[in-house]
Amino acid sequence: MSVITLDGRPIQVDEEGFLTDPSEWDEDLGKALATAIGITLTDEHWNAIRFLRTDFAEQGETATLRRVSTRGGIPVKKLFALFPQKPAKKMAYVSGLPKPHGCV
């Protein structure tokens, strides 16, 4: 576990840069995390992020891309447009959650 400074505050991250304590996350940090990977957040991004955060609180693990699509009601194609190349991984990163199981 490492500590990095982002948006002027220290946060604990794993070896891939994912937050190790989701309670450290807030929307300002989410914006900073998104900016760090080249994403400018829109309302559509926030819908996905808020779904992930709520689902994580209920399920205890980060939702897969399929779950975000089926339960969150956001088409997979739209998720790829919002979070290009690796949407599940990028959504989890910006949401301050662990990388979903099955992500490489």
Automatic annotation (TrEMBL):
The active site is at residue 103. Signal peptide: none annotated. GO terms for biological process: tRNA wobble position uridine thiolation. One of its GO terms (cellular component) is cytoplasm. It is found in: Cytoplasm. Belongs to the DsrC/TusE family. This is TusE/DsrC/DsvC family sulfur relay protein. It comes from Nocardioides zhouii. The lineage of its organism: Bacteria, Bacillati, Actinomycetota, Actinomycetes, Propionibacteriales.
